[in-house]
Amino acid sequence: MAGPSEKKEKVKKEKVVKEKVAKASSIGQKKKDVKKETGLGLSVKKDENFGDWYSEVCKQDMIEYYDISGCYILRPWSMAIWEIMQIFFDAEIKKMKVKNCYFPLFVSPAVLEKEKDHIEGFAPEVAWVTKSGKSDLEIPIAIRPTSETVMYPYYSKWIRGHRDLPLKLNQWCNVVRWEFSNPTPFIRSREFLWQEGHTAFATKAEADEEVLQILELYRRIYEEYLAVPVVKGMKSENEKFAGGLYTTSVEAFIPNTGRGVQGATSHCLGQNFAKMFEINYENEKAETAMVWQNSWAYSTRTIGVMIMTHGDDKGLVLPPKVASVQVVVIPVPYKDANTQGIYDACTATASALCEAGIRAEEDLRDNYSPGWKYSDWEMKGVPLRIEIGPRDLENDQVRTVRRDNGVKEDIPRGSLVENVKELLEKIQQNMYEVAKQKREACVQEVKTWDEFIKALNEKKLILAPWCDEEEVERDVKARTKGETGAAKTLCSPFDQPELPEGTLCFASGKPAKKWTYWGRSY
Ligand code: 87F
């Protein structure tokens, strides 16, 4: 979800060239795949070539490339993560009395263009159906890039009196945005999955409150589930959703590339859409009033941010809370030792864990060595490995090996469940702490333009005092424009450090109004 002000620029880029490059790289890909079938492990290191590392990790188990550029197949290994987050979020919004619904994928041009101002900047990204079979459609039909214009005509119909409020709907669906800038699995794809919530209230106060409640759920998805630290804050005027009143977001940061990434957004739309779509109601005094609206979304981008944050040179590292397999149990038979006994112990161990609600699986494949299996499950990112060999059997214990830090520990089978539960919690916690430390190490406070440029070149997450003027942000963008993209605001954190009287804006030299995070971004 790139900022609106950048959209126009992006689409100017040569589309044909991009498509050719994508095709060429997918052909090169086939060669690499053949090579890889014989050996395990990644061919690129995270620090050496982050882009290649990322696509190699994704391709291992999470996604399959498709023959349409920018579209990816989500394989069960990634879909399971999406489902776990979905179960959490869906239950939370239901507690808030949000109801699920489903609106159509197709949008008529009349409806899509009803809200000209907001659609204008996005228009190049809208995909259209123009034919059925061989004949041209009389009126082309758009595919939803988001559903404001799809839903709001019906909000206008359904909301009549104050008793119809609040109206709180959500849908889990796919959307299509025909992006032209380099597609990246999960992070920027032409079709993606998300939830979009659209709510309407009688008062602004209720809308304001919900914006923050939802933002807190997004923080929890990142921090508690994906173990990715995020900053909650307010988008600048340039970067907010143009159709709305204000936009809040959670922002993550990828140290390896020095880029910020917008994790999810919660918008207060104010009454802009209510005006356009005539979403009015009769209030208690029998007067006609306009509703206040919000919209909010998080998408499969979350999975990409998680992969980028935790993955290492051995492959994926999955936080236990979202891993579809939390524990893998591997037999380590030895010569004439009791092989069947070891296999049985593995099955019994996995069953005991499953019964206790832990997602565990035994790997009894007899055509792979234990060492090969270790690498295989490490690549898949399974948080905890249990090995059972002759000595473990003898001592009534199992050996555990953590994916996050490689630490090995023998635990008695008598306390298997408690110990594994505890270990999984520790892994989850540790992954978050490590990611947070890495991010903190990148934060750089700057006061002047020279410090800003230096920090930008050092891939820092920049925190700077800012005058909060649109013109100044545009100027910063223009002055930092280069091959790797311009710097822009990520957000102004709600948690503001103290801003001493007389502090000046790093870019304009005018009095600073707030601290704001800046950086290049995805
Ligand atoms: C692309 C094409 C057409 C983003 C687009 O963030 C329209 C749009 O309106 C568009 N890309 N947006 C902004 C989406 C705003 C808003 N929609 C509901 C959200 C949360 C969920």
TrEMBL record:
UniProt-listed Enzyme Commission number(s)? 6.1.1.15
The protein's name in its UniProt record: proline--tRNA ligase
Q: What is the lineage of its organism?
A: Eukaryota, Viridiplantae, Streptophyta, Embryophyta, Tracheophyta
Show the NCBIfam families listed in the entry: proS_fam_I
Query: One GO molecular function term?
Result: ATP binding
- Occurrences of domain Aminoacyl-transfer RNA synthetases class-II family profile (ranges): 104-319
User: Which EC class is the enzyme in?
Assistant: ligase
Tell me the organism: Arabidopsis lyrata subsp. lyrata
Catalysed reaction equations from the record = tRNA(Pro) + L-proline + ATP = L-prolyl-tRNA(Pro) + AMP + diphosphate
Query: Do the record's keywords include Thylakoid?
Result: no
Q: Which UniProt keywords apply?
A: Aminoacyl-tRNA synthetase, ATP-binding, Ligase, Nucleotide-binding, Protein biosynthesis
